Amino acid sequence: MLTYILKRLLVAVPLIFGVLTLTFFIIRLAPGDPAAFFIQPGISPNVAMQIREQYGLNDPLLIQYVKWLGHVLQGDFGRSFSRAQQPVIEVIASALPITVTIALLTLVANFTFGIIIGVISAVRQNSFLDRFLTITALFFYSMPEFWFALMMIIFFALRFPLFPASGLNEVGAEGFGPLGFAIDRLWHLVLPVTVLSINGAAGIARYVRGSMLEVIRQDYIRTARAKGLPERLVIFRHALRNALLPVITLMGSSLPFIFSGALFIEVIFAFPGMGRVTVEAIFARDYPLIIANTFISGILIVFGNLIADVLYAVVDPRIKL
Q1: By CB neighbour count within 10 A (0-12 exposed, 13-18 middle, 19+ buried), where does 144 fall?
Q2: Which of 95, 145, 190, 243 is the most buried (most CB within 10 A)?
């Protein structure tokens, strides 16, 4: 297992490096440059020339790439153009925990509700409850997350003010004490996590339902029932474990998609996470910050796929890595 993980990590290094290289050249093909972000009415055009010279933007593209590569190999992603020369690592370090918290809460909610709904639908196949859950799951699965987020804000934050519409905490929440601060933070995360998890849980429920229907028709399930085992034991101990095998793959691969979905949700709910940082970096042509965000996304994709493969081998002993 350890040898397999090390091999996968070694293969991931040139893959992520290739993605960063492509990102480096692609973002520089876009019209405009970071100097345009600093040009305001009343400011001399010479300022733009000084900024381009300061950041090395006047150098040939190949020279810029060689300089950038030298810094990255030393673990230095540079300083942000749009955040007063703040190191990129510090910008990400302050924003990443917020996004990771939302993504992890969403991942847990996705699979918890998705598995429960899928099992109920499979056990009650063709019943009214099965049809109701199936139609509801398809409805939420096809709903755009950004539109659903806006509807949740309108109904549950504006029309019926049950939850806050934006922000991570109330003003002055530091005075609530550690427990009060944590509860206030969780209360602010209810709407964004709900938006992200409902869509994902609906898709997982469809996978679980189909897998459960295939498993419960197997001969060993009939044998377990013929032995007189309780139905609950047959479903949860014998059927569910095997039905979850194809779903395990989704657990790792869904992490990057949850992360990317959290980026858009953070913008809508005004969270100071990676989503807001990424959007501001794109509009400001903040090359170092954009590349660093791409690096984080690449790491998540590799890490998610690796988790999926390892979990698959843990759940199914027949799989040899």
Answers
A1: exposed
A2: 243
Task: Identify the residue whose tokens are 């609530």.
Answer: 176
Which residues sit opposite 79 in a β-bridge? 87
The candidate with the shortest Cα–Cα distance to 51, out of 38, 41, 60, is 38
Per-residue pLDDT of the chain (321 residues; tens, 9 = 90+): 677 778 777 888 888 888 888 888 888 777 766 766 666 655 666 766 777 777 777 778 888 888 888 888 888 888 887 777 788 888 888 888 888 888 888 888 888 888 888 888 888 888 888 889 888 888 888 888 888 888 888 988 888 888 888 877 777 777 777 788 788 888 888 888 888 888 888 888 888 888 888 888 888 888 888 888 888 888 887 788 778 777 777 776 677 777 777 777 888 888 888 888 888 888 778 888 888 888 887 787 777 777 777 776 666 666 655
State the pTM of this model: 0.78
The rounded distance, in Å, linking the Cα atoms of 293 and 135 is 37
Around Cβ 91, how many Cβ atoms within 10 Å? 24
DSSP 246-277: HHHHHHHHHHHHHHHHHHHHHHHTT-SSHHHH
